[in-house]
Amino acid sequence: MDSQRTSQVVTFRSPPRILIPKLVESRDAWKLKAGQRKKKLKAAQIHCRDLSVSRELWKKRALAAEENTHALHKQLLQAQSQLQQAKTTIAQLELEQKKTPASHRS
Fold this sequence. Notes:
Elements: H1 2-7, H2 16-99
C-alpha cells in the first residue's frame, strides 16, 4: 500500500510559482488563527482559575460568617435565659421582702 502512495505523484494544474505563495499564505493564516485561539484558551483558563480561587475565598468567608452568626445566636439565647432567671430571682426576692415584716429587715 505504501508503494502505491509513493508511486502516485500529485499533479497540479497551476504552476508552482502561483501555488507556493498561496500555500505559504494559507499556512501562515492557519498558524495565526491557531496562535490566537491558543492565547484565548490560555486567557480563559487563567480567568477560570482566578474565579475558582475567588469563589473558594468567598465560600470560606461566608462559612466563617455563618459560624460566627450561630455562635452569636447561642450567646444571645444564653443571655436571654440568664436575664429571665435574674428577673425570676428578683421577683422572688421582692415577693419575700413584701412578706417579711419591716422589723425583721436589717
